[in-house]
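[Discussion] Sanity-checking designs against the backbone

I'm trying to build intuition for which residues belong where. Below is a structure token string of 64 positions. I'd appreciate it if someone posts a full sequence so I can compare it with mine line by line.
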């Protein structure tokens, strides 16, 4: 899935977003693109669960 994460602006945000997704699914592949503020996630977790995890971390996301 590809997500837009508008509040992700720096390396700290990138790390927080990656951590939130990895905590949900340790086997997830997470590719953050900071300039476009998007995240490409390969995971078996449901999209809703990923969105909830990011929101809980302070980074609301929307599917692209
Ligand atoms: Cu930041």
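Best answer:
Here's mine. Compare freely.
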């Amino acid at each position: 899935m590809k997500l837009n994460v508008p509040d992700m602006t720096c390396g700290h945000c990138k790390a927080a977003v990656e951590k939130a997704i990895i905590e949900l699914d340790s086997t997830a592949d997470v590719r953050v693109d900071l300039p476009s503020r998007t995240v490409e996630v390969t995971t078996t977790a449901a999209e809703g669960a990923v969105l909830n995890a990011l929101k809980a971390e302070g980074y609301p996301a929307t599917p692209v």
